[in-house]
Amino acid sequence: MIASTSITVHYLDLSLNPSGEVTKQIGDALPVSCTISASRNATVVWMKDNTRLKSSPSFSSLHYQDAGNYVCETALQEVEGLKKRESLTLIVEGKPQIKMTKKTDPSGLSKTIICHVEGFPKPAIQWTITGSGSVINQASICLIVLYCTWFNVEFYLDT
């Protein structure tokens, strides 16, 4: 008597392009593809900094907030434990971008200046009193509230 049996071989392969550490300039485009080859339909999940993305990343013009660790993960639901994952660490470099906001208190006695600077490598900003050379504060993000009761003060941001 001859016995026979059927054997099913499942496979799963993933190719992420680019992968590893990638450094680009702000405003650059970066095409990203995660190609799956599998014996059955495979699920694909994208993560950025351990947070699941709703769709695959697309970078037509890079911003600083695009920087991070991306992971493309695929799995075969029919075969428990058959998973593959590849990662991309995206670094976005460029000159600092400055956003400054000025607000005056309704009483007119104080002014609030908020300066937010983005860049990579991480920029540092420095507040000085014009003409004195005195440094008020050094940081990446500053909030300065100045109280002026007897005279008007003008504020300048030297970039």
Automatic annotation (TrEMBL):
Gene Ontology CC annotations of this record: axon; dendrite; plasma membrane
One Pfam family of this chain: Ig_2
Gene3D superfamilies: Immunoglobulins
CDD domains xref list: Ig
Main location: other
Membrane found in the keyword field: yes
Protein name: CD166 antigen
Organism name: Rousettus aegyptiacus (Egyptian fruit bat)
